[in-house]
Amino acid sequence: MGDTLEFSEIYQEVKGSWNDGRLRFSKQNVVYKSTKTGKVDNISASDLNLAQWRRVCLGHGIKLGTSTGNFYKYDGFRDTDFEKISEFFKANYKVELTEKDMCVKGWNWGTAKFSGPLLSFDVNDNSAFEIPLSNVSQCATGKNEVTLEFHQNDDTEVSLMEVRFYVPPSQADERQDPVEAFAQNVLCKADVIQATGDAVCIFKELQCLTPRGRYDIRIYPSFLHLHGKTFDYKIPYTTVLRLFLLPHKDQRQMFFVISLDPPIKQGQTRYHFLILLFSKEEDISLTLNMSEEDVERRFEGKLSKNMSGSLYEMVSRVMKALVNRKITVPGNFQGHSGAQCITCSYKASSGLLYPLERGFIYVHKPPVHLRFEEISCVNFARGTTTTRSFDFEIETKQGNQYTFSSIEREEYGKLFDFVNAKKLNIKNRGFKEGMKGNKDEYSDSDDDQHDAYLERMKAEGKIREEGNDSDESDGGSDESFNPGEEDDDIAEEYDSNASASDSSEDGEDSEDESAKKKKKVKKEKVVKEKKERKPRKEKKQKDTGGPKRPMSAYMLWLNASRERIKSENPGISITEISKKAGEMWRQLGKEDKEEWETKAGEAKRQYEKAKKEYKESGGGGGGTSSSKKESKKSGGKKDEKKRKSAGGDKDKERGGGNDSFKSREFIETSEESSSDSDHKSKSKRKKESEEEEEAVSTPASSEEESD
User: Fold this and answer.
1) What is the distance between the alpha carbons of residues 78 and 34, in angstroms, rounded to a whole number?
2) How many angstroms separate the Cα of 604 from the Cα of each of 80, 364, 555, 613, 652?
3) Contact criterion met (CB below 8 Å) for 359 and 372
4) Ordered DSSP codes for 411-434
5) Would you state the pLDDT for residue 575?
6) From CA 87, how far away is CA 89, in angstroms rounded?
7) Which of 261-275, 641-655, 660-674 has the lowest mean pLDDT?
8) Taking the CB of the first residue and of the last residue of the chain, which one, N or C, has fewer CB atoms within 10 A?
9) C-alpha–C-alpha distance, residues 607 and 594, integer Å
10) Is 486 exposed, middle or buried (0-12, 13-18, 19+ CB in 10 A)?
């Protein structure tokens, strides 16, 4: 048998959730490391005094007890593991591994036994279930019952909220109430904080990012008290998982991050991280509320009674001594600007990503800590908004994915080298070459980007050229029927070439040259004719009296969110606000967008209703398109009045009334439609219009037309 025994996929129950990890038995100690949190249980071999082998839901389990009264339970063993573990315990720990049966009768009455931090409910000397008292968050008593409430775990789909015990009245000892005795046994080991005694020290008005606000931090021997204007939090040091001290990118501020498990709770919101922000220039003189002997005995030189220095140094030093955990700081990573972090965005909020020696931490909204051990692979992806940035994606072994976007492309080389040095699995290793060398793949110039509008214009130009070529080919076929007429045109158009073509001795060369000239002249004629018959666009007059068009859902959301974006990003320019708003809108959930789309739909319905009422009341111009065209062609109000009065007098002479004006309108309307359909040239339409006006204004012509 070797010096150690190792088992993988061993589970530990933590607040109703099964966390897997690795368990190792060695001659000196028993070590269990959680795969999820990285937390380590280290049990000295000399402290072990109890070892039980039990049949549990996940195969078989071991319950270990220490001389200090602590218990540790690990499940996931196989039936065949019993013999080798038992022999190892006898040889190295001098402890016998005993088999213990669990009660599976399902009875709800039995005996409650308190053994250290465990409450065991036994039926016929066999345990039915055990409650770790450290999971108890509240203990309430009634007439004959005790109610235990538990800390909640975010990772569990189903949580146990409370358990009620009925305690029958005792006839033997009436001096002590059995309900109160039961509650006292629970409270002495439960995670229920009661502020007793004076605080060791107090830090006033510290800026806290999560939960947001200004808080007074009172340091007690066993817990941390966050006192704010609205909320109070009591955080036991046993729930502190890790401590981080991180320099801000501006080199003038510092983040102090406290990782909590279980998290602090505010309503339905849970905060897994406590983030404090300090200025490097802020100093403090601190005096601990303890005697020098007590300070020396308790902290063994880590703290002294009187200390002075930067505020962030004092807070981190005191927390390190009380929590008894190391403070994690950034490693050797340096970004493009020389900072130890990278500016990026996560879930529509901008923040800082710190590559550490053993993981990544993102500050601050929401904070994320990812250890290298739980990372399955990383991926470098092109930015969704611009080519000047890229996205950094991290996928964990549990299947979760974290995307840090809008990272400047200058940071790519540094981040890639860091990830590569840490031997993390990179999905797209060829991406680096594409970033640096291949301009088509990842170019810095905006000219190299695909322009859809330019491509469309090129396609339309190509179609027009093909149309011109088809006209030329048709003209060329017509030219062969009248070669003599075209020769005269060429001579007139190109006088200098006329003699050259006439004096050509070679007949075939002369014909080829003249054919080219004919083709060129024909092309110029076609282009000129197309330009002449191109209709002039009428300038659309804006109706200022009508209802205002409604805004889209995005614009409604932007107007409501603009001030918030400015406050969260001080000093941001208008262009950057638009860019940031676009990213935030794309990352909004369907439910959040639905609210603004509903408002936009309601605004559109109101606009349609107002527009309809406006038109019915005569707004927006009541004339027809034909009458508008007529007034444009007339050449001014003065001339129009003259023509109307002249036409009216002539009509009165023959009793026609305003028929001449009506017939003119009819004629011009017909002319417009026919000219559009026949594609007549501009000069021809003008000539016809003048002839028709002359016919209308002359009585004799009108009579001839009526005849």
Assistant:
1) 19
2) 72, 39, 13, 14, 52
3) yes
4) GHHHHHHHHHHTTPPBS-TTHHHH
5) 85
6) 5
7) 660-674
8) C
9) 20
10) buried
Residue 401: strand, helix, or coil: strand
The owner of tokens 């009509």 is 651
Instruction: Determine which of 42-51, 223-232, 322-331, 540-549 has the lowest per-residue pLDDT on average.
Output: 540-549
Confidence (pLDDT) at 243? 93
pTM of the model: 0.47
Q: Strand 98-100: give its sheet, edge to edge.
A: 40-44, 29-34, 17-25, 5-14, 71-77, 59-66, 48-56, 98-100
Task: In whole angstroms, give the CA distance from residue 568 to residue 580.
Answer: 11
Percentage of residues of the chain with pLDDT beyond 70 = 68
Considering only residues 535 and 217, tell me which one the structure prediction assigns the higher pLDDT: 217
pLDDT tens string 479-537: 443 444 444 443 333 343 443 334 444 444 545 566 666 666 667 766 666 665 656 55
Q: Which two tokens stand for residue 384?
A: 């969704």
Outline where DSSP puts E strands in 93-168: 98-100, 111-115, 118-123, 126-132, 136-141, 145-150, 162-166
> Does residue 159 sit in helix, strand or coil?
coil
**Which residue is associated with the tokens 């559109």?**
604
Amino acid letter, residue 302: K
What integer is the mean pLDDT of 247-269? 87
Residues 6 or more apart whose Cβ sits within 8 Å of residue 248: 254, 255, 277, 352
Residue 242, CA distances (Å) to 36, 256, 320 in order:
14, 11, 10
Judged against a pLDDT cut of 50, whether residue 384 lies above it is answered with yes
Q: What is the DSSP letter of 149?
A: E
Residues listed for the chain: 707
Residue 468 to residue 472: CA distance in whole angstroms? 6
Contact 581, 565 (CB under 8 A): yes
Among 33-42, 106-115, 534-543, name the one with the lowest average pLDDT.
534-543
Distance between CA atoms of residues 655 and 178, nearest Å: 121
Question: Helix, strand or coil for residue 308?
Answer: strand
**H or E element that contains 380:** strand 375-382
Residue by residue, DSSP assigns 47-70 as: GEEEEEEEEETTEEEEEEEETTS-
Q: Look at the block and give the residue holding tokens 């991050």.
A: 257
Residue pLDDT, tens place only, 270-318: 889 999 999 998 999 988 888 888 888 888 888 888 889 999 999 999 9
Contact of 201 with 286, CB cutoff 8 Å: yes
For residue 444, the one-letter residue type is D
- Give me the pLDDT at residue 505, please: 44
Average pLDDT of the residues in 252-279:
88
Helices 699-706 and 682-697: angle between axes, nearest 10 degrees: 100
- Distance from C-alpha of 357 to C-alpha of 343, rounded to nearest angstrom: 18
Q: What is the DSSP string of 178-229?
A: HHHHHHHHHHTTSS-----S--SEEEEEEEEEETTEEEEEEE-SSEEEEE-S
Q: What is the mean pLDDT of the chain?
A: 75
Peptide bond into 550 cis (omega under 30): no
Judge contact between 245 and 330, C-beta under 8 A. no
